[in-house]
Amino acid sequence: MFIRQKLFISFLVVVTIPILFLSYLSLKNTSEALRKEEFRKLESIIDLKLKRIESIFEWLKEDIAISQGFYNIKLNLPILIQFRNNRTNPVYMEATNTLYNQLKIMLKNKGLLDIRLTDLDGKILYAVDKSHRDKEEGRTVQYYSKEALNEWKKGVWFSDIFKHENHFAMLIIAPAYDLEEKITGFIVFEVNMGPIYEIIQDTTGLGETGETLIAKKTSDGALYLNILRHDKEAALKRKVIFGSASGFPALEAVQGRKGIGISTDYRGEKVIAAWRYMPSLAWGVVAKIDTREAFAPIEHMKSAVILFTIIAVILTAMLSFWIAKSFSDPIHRLHKGTEIIGSGNLDYKVGVATRDEIGQLSRSFDEMAHKLKESQENIIRSERLSVIGKLASSVAHELRNPLGVIKNVLYYLNMLGLSKDNPEVKENLDIIAKEIEDSDKIITDLLEFARAKKPALRPENINHIVKEALDRLKIGPDIQVVLELADNLPDIEMDALQIQQVFYNIVKNALEAMEKGGKLTVNTGIRGDFMELSVSDTGSGIPEDDLTKVFEPLFSTKTKGTGLGLSVCASLVEGHNGKIEVKSELGKGATFTVKLPIRKG
Amino acid sequence: MPDKANLLIVDDDKDMGGILKAILDETGEYETFVANNSKEALKLVKNERIDIVLIDLVLKEGKNGVEVFSEIKGIRPCVKGILFTGYGTAEEVGHRAIKGGLIDEILPKMIHPKELIKAIGKYKGGKANGK
């Protein structure tokens, strides 16, 4: 795996894991809190409703108790029983009138559907509602049975809910007494379930899907008593059977249990539900809401958290990629650079500009390549020098023979007096003689070059060497020589002959560059660990392209140069562990500087 | 002429030998012989009364001038030897020969003929006086 991939994956993992962990935690905590909040809300709703329903039935119980104490009923119910077959009797008429006047007020005030009075056998004697009275008189009251009769005698009794015409109702039955506190019959309240259903079916706080409901235990399950939000026909019709998965909260509630949880309602829909049992009426009460709706905020939050996490991971990935890239790019460049340099291109620069270790490494590498190049060039040059040296030596020797022959022949011809009377012949023979001398100089150069040896080091004074060499050089009057020789220069180790040769060659070049006259400046001095000798001329200068080549053997711009003079200089100076440098401006002159190391101690 | 010195030129370059002979003959002071190799040279030394030998340091046959001259000297101990060399200054072998008293002088090959005649002249006199 590459460094970039490793870094990328590491950064990504390091940053992503906490993000994922935190996202998961926050999601978990928040959904837990939301879930608890939903449960709490449902419980408070169900408990509130339970309280209200219970208080309604408490009031009804109180109302029926009040009616039990009515003097009117105590007095007149026995009359109704006594005259039940003689209804036109004025006493009977008087009794019904009196009852009607009082009970109708109660009926109206308490919102009851009807108040009926029965005898001890449950036979209806009187109903406040006239329409009931005509139909029902003499019939037994609904829910009548022998067992029921005994129940009724015990106190206040609540019936089941039933559907009467278009509304739902239930009966509350309590015994009626005569003036001597003996049971004479029963008072029957027909209660309108409407207001109670209103409370139950109020969906405030229950959203789009929530509801509260009541159910009653049956032999095999639970019967829904009210109109359900999702089933308008459910009241007294819809049932759930024990053991079935749907309607679990209602089944639990009707069995007298109380609880809260996530379960399935009568539709088979997943809901959160709270359930309670109302002992007074034997009702199971359930408050519930679809989890889909209740947990929608959780789902929304989940989506938000997931979205956030994805964005965070993507951003992290981008950042990681960027960081990894910023690390690996320089390394990659370094790698590429080293490969290129390794393949032999020593001019290549890795060039990582960063200030960190990679940048330092890169710079070291560039420096190394530069030094390698220098030493490679040195090796190549010295190899070339050595080959050229051998060649030069052999060529020089071979050339000297024929040249010597020609020279001797020329002399012989003069000896014979061939040119005595013929100036033209003499002129031409002189040309040959001069050319022979020039050629011999070239051969001398070649041999000098070939003979470059190890320097014989001895402490010498550079200024002496310069002065001596200048004395021997015949410098014409058109050249102005300026000496800038530093005083008190120490003697340093050098081969005087070789350094003189170097100086001589450089000055000769300078003079050749100043054919029409100029200024020759010779400067000596100490710079750092080196003693410097520089020679400046005001000649034609060297083109920039040639500056690097002037020290190469066989490089020459002159028609009659061997291209060895400066090359000899370079190899001699290098033999001293020194350096030779050139600076030039075309048309303005050139400066050659020889740097010789000052060895201390 | 009785006072003419006998001079042997040993050079594997025939032209060089030829022209040197021509020049030296022209001076009228020498009887000049030319040998192009050591064999010829030794034969001439045996047959002729050679006074001075002008011998090239570098001979193509493998032996150098100093070696050949030492053989010549073995035949004629009184002979004077001048070593001719193509290099600007004499090679080590030449220097040793001078130090050892074998060779009398080393001359550069590109020496001007006038100088050469002068240099050889020194030995001609000595030889002539000796015999």
Written description of the protein model:
The complex is a heterodimer of chains A (601) and B (131). Chain A is of the alpha+beta class and 601 residues long. Chain A contains 15 helices and 18 strands. In chain A, strands 8-7-6-11-10-9 form a 6-stranded antiparallel β-sheet. Chain A has a 5-stranded antiparallel β-sheet with strand order 2-1-5-4-3, with helices on both faces. Chain A starts with a helix and ends with a strand. Classes of the chains: A alpha+beta (601), B alpha/beta (131). The A-B interface holds A 396-397, 400-405, 407-409, 411-412, 415-416, 440, 444, 447-448 and B 13, 15-16, 19-20, 22-23, 26, 58, 86-88, 109-110, 112-114.
Tally of contiguous helical segments of chain B = 5
SS field, number of helical segments of chain A: 15
Largest sheet of chain A: 6 strands, antiparallel
Computed over alpha carbons, the radius of gyration of chain B is 13 Å
Query: What share of residues of chain A is helical?
Result: 40-55%
Give the strand order, joined by hyphens, for the main sheet of chain B.
Answer: 2-1-3-4-5
Outline of chain B, from the CA principal axes? globular
Q: Class by helix and strand content of chain A?
A: alpha+beta
Percent helix of chain B, as a range, is 40-55%
Write down the overall mean pLDDT of chain B.
84
Q: How much beta of chain B, percentage-wise?
A: 15-25%
Tell me, briefly, the overall form of chain A.
rod-shaped
Low-confidence stretches of chain B: 127-131
What's the order of the H and E elements of chain B?
EHEHEHEHEH
Q: Can you lay out the helices and strands and say which pair or pack?
A:
The complex is a heterodimer of chains A (601) and B (131).
Chain A: H1 3-68, H2 71-82, H3 90-110, E1 112-119, E2 124-127, H4 130-136, H5 146-154, E3 157-164, E4 167-177, E5 183-192, H6 194-201, E6 211-217, E7 221-224, E8 239-241, H7 248-254, E9 259-264, E10 270-278, E11 283-290, H8 291-294, H9 296-342, H10 357-415, H11 423-450, E12 458-460, H12 462-472, E13 479-484, E14 492-494, H13 496-513, E15 518-527, E16 530-536, H14 544-547, H15 565-575, E17 579-585, E18 589-597
Parallel strand pairs in A: 13-15
Antiparallel strand pairs in A: 1-2, 1-5, 3-4, 4-5, 6-7, 6-11, 7-8, 9-10, 10-11, 12-14, 15-16, 16-18, 17-18
Helix pairs in contact in A: 1-9, 2-3, 9-10, 10-11, 12-13, 13-15
Chain B: E1 5-10, H1 14-27, E2 30-35, H2 38-47, E3 52-56, H3 65-75, E4 80-85, H4 92-99, E5 105-108, H5 113-130
Helix pairs in contact in B: 2-3
